[in-house]
Amino acid sequence: MSASFSSAPRTALVTGAGKRLGREIALGLARAGWRVAVHYRSSELEALQTAQECLALNASTQSLDPQHFIFQADLADEAATRHLLPMVLKQMGQVDAVVNSAALFEHDDVQSFSYTNMAQHWASNTGAAIVLAQALHQHCQQRNSPTKPASSASAAGLAAGLAAGLAAGLAAPHSDAVVINMLDQKLWNPNPDFLSYTLSKAALEAANTLLAQALAPFVRVVGVAPGLTLTSHMLDEDKFKQLHKLSPLGRSSSVEDVVSTVVFAMHNRAITGTTLLVDGGQHLMKFERDFSLM
Fold this sequence. Notes:
The protein is of the alpha/beta class. It has one domain (11-145, 167-293): 3-Layer(aba) Sandwich (Rossmann fold). It contains eight helices and seven strands; from the N terminus they run βαβαβαβααβαβααβ. Strand 2 (35-40), helix 2 (44-56) and strand 3 (70-72) form a beta-alpha-beta unit. The longest helix has 30 residues, at 115-144. The radius of gyration is 21 Å and the shape is globular.
């Protein structure tokens, strides 16, 4: 049974929120007072844990069922992606932000490049983010649409209707919604590793500008580009610590750095069509290989 969220705080959908950076972003938004819809592809148990912890951070939501806050979709599937935001809206009533954190990150290079690999990265990393931005924009248009004034045959009635419509338009909170696209300092410091991934993120960075133009004034679009933030199965802990220090500031981004930047971008209504690099300056240095292959 769905809970009623008619008077709920602002709601953010975070993709890939069951694990790693997506999970940390979800928890950071919950601490900042957001109600979080947790998307996952196959990590249901991890997504449920994220939802439980998000609810525990807000006294008004601690008694709610975390199962109502998790949403499954394979972002490589366009039909599933187009169904995702309507599912969240049906359950939670309103969505004010989308954080596109989920990403496919599989290795290829110019020798192993294929149409299939590129298409998979394009669908998951670029196409899905655009589709979700499109869906958020449509939702914002619908909820901000002013009521049409009743028709009147008199000049006075027409004038009053025009004035009411203008006032409603001026009062509409057009720029309250926001899309955050998680990018990568690698775009400003290119190397040929992970070719399809890099191309998909480069396309998404270009989409920041195009979407910010197309979706204004209802939706802002902001990129956040971390440096090396979390280790992976491709790096042992000692190697990660060594690489993390390779920046002009002597440290790359921490989880806290990235999360605080996402929260800042979501709350600052004057930012759109740009990317915030949060990497300790790693984009200013030249790396011949991807961090995971160094």
